[in-house]
Amino acid sequence: MTVPETLVDEHHEPLLDKCGSHLDENRNWPTHGTYEYTSYYHSRREIVPFTDFIAMDKEFDFVVIGAGPIGAALAFKLATDNPTSRVLVVEKNWAEPDRIVGELMQPGGCQAMEQLGLQNVFSDISAVPVHGYYISYRGRQLHVPYMHDANGQLRGVSFHHGRLVMNLRAACKAQSNVVCVEGSVTELLGQMDNNRFTAVRGVRVGPQRIQADGSDECIDVCSRKLTFVCDGITSQFRKQLNERPVELISHFCGLVLEHEPVSSDTYFDGPTGTTSHVSRPTDTAGNPLPMPHNGNVMLDGVGPVLLYQMSERETRVLADIPGPFLPSESNGQLRETLRTSLSHAAPKHLYPALHAALMRALDDSRRIRCIGSKFIPATANNIDGAVWIGDALNVRHPLTGGGMTVGLWDVVILTDLLRTHDAANSQQVQRVKAQWQWRRRPRALVVNVLSVALHALFAAETKELGLLREACFEYLAKGSHYTMQPSGFLSGLLPSPMLLIFHFFSVAFLAVYLRVSDESVAYSGGSLFYRVYSAFYTLYIAATVILPVIWRELQP
Fold first, then answer.
1. I need a labelling partner for 473 at 20 to 30 A (CA). Which of 116, 157, 240, 332 fits?
2. Are the C-beta atoms of 253 and 318 separated by less than 8 Å?
3. Number of Cβ within a 10 Å radius of residue 298
4. Distance between CA 451 and CA 448 in Å, rounded?
5. How far is 93 from 74, CA to CA, in rounded Å?
6. How far apart are CA 506 and CA 494, in angstroms?
7. pLDDT tens digits, one per residue of 413-425
8. Which helix (H) or strand (E) segment is 182 a member of?
């Protein structure tokens, strides 16, 4: 496999080969094209420091708290849909963020970007097209491609999280009716009853870093229409809406592999990117990934191990450690757990190049970056004048990479409804919220439930869950709708809760068959009576995995 020489400029331009063409030859991918707001990427001219904001007019039509992916996309759409309205975006730090999740956009999220008018947002950041999933389990490999539409195969995109956020922020900064403030929102302002907000009419804004003694000067900002809480997974205002305890499911530990780029036509042919690549995991040349330009899921570790490219030269590794408690790094337990997990996920005799790269990345890392994986179901919002959206409202396990897809579609649906209603009329806004909750629920439920259920199966801490994991792999390997409809759930393209339940219990009944017939490798042995008993106990375990999560998602 020949690896072309490449050039990368300081502004993260896409990689070019000697002839000046993109390594990904298909010009239809969303990573191509010119981004119209590139000149605003590094610009700070449009950012108002808190000290300067003090002297400005404090009345705005819309206030957006947080300029992450969802907050920035929302602010851009509000500004373009309401050109005569003033939009305030308050963000603590407008510098490029550095996170180890939120680096893969499913095709459903790409469709939402198009709906928002941000279809070129993946350009100029060295983003890589994603065609589907490569899954490895017990020495077997499986490719789950994304669905097709009338124009060919749909695709996702993987990237550096911070670069995408900066492109989204650049779109905000380019809008003349958006005021970007670098500061902190310290509290919501409005009417309260029994220490709970009944109406939000504005926010209190302070400097970037708030003193513990409360001595900082803060100013009150009036929101004439709506305040949007988009301050992410660590939202300080979530408890005003949802007091349910946060469920910590596991931790993702992140590493980075560096490698040579691989031309996409090595793995894909045809204008729609249909896979023609037969995995060669023992190939040590170039990129060590089993299948570049795909999400690679290795199921034989302590928990699932994910690999996806952030650029043509860099791949993110996310190793899951199940359970709410993380092994200590100070005594070396965390590194030993990761070494075991990575060695089992990519054994040396099957993946020599990948195994060596993983061990090298683990040994070279000074500090293991970890992030908790949580589940927070959405709740109905009856607070007048405010909307919680994105991870401030609803969090799912990051295993399936569906968080931004859910959040962006929330923005699409909400802004579509606001276009035909008066955002200053509280009664109309309450109707908008009710319609929004109803319209967002199918996609959010499918993505959220699937993320938690798949993690339970892929982490497989019991024999029954291990049997379900094996049945899931066998089910996906059947092809046809057994593969493509689950692919639609993963990609955010098939928001059908009933179809999700059908496929999940189809997997469960396949597990019953594998156990009773004694064809299972994960759970074998025992008399016929015991196999029948354990098979139907596995069916019960399957129900306990998915039904409580669905119930929590359906609660108002």
1. 157
2. yes
3. 26
4. 5
5. 18
6. 17
7. 999 999 999 999 9
8. strand 178-182
